[in-house]
Design goal:
Blueprint (H helix, E strand, L loop, with lengths): L1 H31 L6 E3 L4 E3 L11 E3 L3 E2 L5 E2 L2 H14 L3 E4 L13 H5 L5 E4 L12 E4 L1 H5 L20 H14 L21 H8 L4 E7 L2 E6 L1 E9 L2 E11 L11 H11 L5 E2 L2 E5 L6 H22 L11
Parallel strand pairs: 3-6, 6-7
Antiparallel strand pairs: 1-2, 4-5, 7-8, 9-10, 10-14, 11-12, 13-14
Helix pairs in contact: 1-2, 6-8, 7-8
Length: 326
């Protein structure tokens, strides 16, 4: 019965996401098809302001599941599935930027594999060589690849990475991919299924989530990220004019790159625990290689918990509630 309720919830959520996604795509394509906008004619190699056939979105590109540089934001898997399904229905190519999320960063060979989604194009890097050499790769389905095949370079996709297909990088990538994907060398990898077992200590993650200074915690694969609560700002008028004042209340999100809410956490990690990290606005995070010992992950998690607690006492946060665990 519980499984049936869960399936109904997911189906309902999927339908709601799909409705919003269709409206968004229709709105964008309607704007793209505005006859007043300029168009480019490939036959005459010149721009024209005349009316043209209806335009479509060229592709959907996303960092799947976790948007790294965007602040380690966790994406709802149902939303991602709904977007991909709608793109498939409209024949819009799906591109997964897995430079950060790929190759067991999030616990699977790819983020797409974690949710059972196959993109048309996938971009890889970083863990592909384990940092031993710079290398990037772009994978594509045969349908996409064949679209750029031909006798003339005018049909080709004239793009390449700065570091692609050179022997040293390829050798490093072959060794790294084998190393990460073999349970004999990756102790966290399950024999069946190809997914990693949880690496972060659940009790520490739970403690982090209950900190009054924390809005949310993401513990997925090799990533442990803490979203700090950000003090709300309010406008007030005084003799000097309109100014911003800090409220005693805090809120989740809204910090962005301009926030310094995680700076003190990172400073404490550095000076008290000799751990180098960097803040992403109001998010502090640590990562380990997929093959790291569990003791290493536990040490980092405990240090992060301590840094959050110390920053809380110094900043003077009150008991404003608990953040969810992911």
């Amino acid at each position: 019965e519980e499984e049936e309720e869960e399936e109904l919830t997911i189906r309902t959520l999927m339908n709601r996401y799909t409705a919003h996604i269709r409206l968004a795509i229709d709105a964008h394509e309607s704007h793209l098809g505005d006859s007043s906008s300029s168009s480019f004619s490939s036959s005459s190699s010149s721009f024209s302001s005349s009316s043209s056939p209806p335009r479509r979105l060229a592709a959907f590109i996303v960092e799947p599941l976790v948007q790294g540089a965007g602040g380690m934001k966790l994406m709802c898997p149902v939303y991602l599935s709904a977007v991909v399904a709608e793109c498939r229905r409209r024949r819009i190519p799906v591109i997964f930027d897995e430079v950060f999320t790929g190759l067991y960063r999030l616990g699977g060979a790819s983020a797409g594999a974690l949710v059972g989604l196959d993109p048309d194009v996938s971009c890889l890097g970083k863990l592909m060589t384990g940092g031993a050499a710079p290398l990037a790769a772009t994978l594509a389905t045969e349908r996409i690849f064949n679209a750029f095949k031909g006798d003339s370079k005018l049909q080709a996709l004239l793009h390449g990475h700065s570091f692609t297909a050179y022997p040293m990088g390829c050798a490093a990538a072959a060794a790294s991919i084998h190393f990460l994907g073999d349970p004999a060398t990756n102790p966290h990898l399950e024999e069946k299924g190809g997914f990693m077992r949880p690496i972060w200590p659940a009790d520490v993650v739970e403690k982090l989530s209950k900190s009054p200074a924390v809005a949310g915690v993401t513990a997925l694969g090799t990533l442990l990220a803490v979203e700090m609560k950000v003090p709300e700002l309010s406008h007030s008028n005084d003799k000097d004019g309109d100014t911003m004042r800090q409220k005693n209340k805090t809120s989740r999100g809204g910090g962005g790159y301009g926030s310094n809410a995680a700076v003190k956490v990172v400073e404490i990690l550095k000076h008290q625990h000799k751990i180098l990290a960097r803040p992403l606005g109001h998010v502090a995070y640590v990562m380990v290689p997929p093959t790291s010992r569990r003791e290493t992950a536990e040490r980092l998690a405990i240090a992060l918990e301590d840094a959050v607690e110390r920053s809380q006492s110094e900043e003077g946060f009150g008991n404003v509630g608990e953040g969810p665990v992911v």
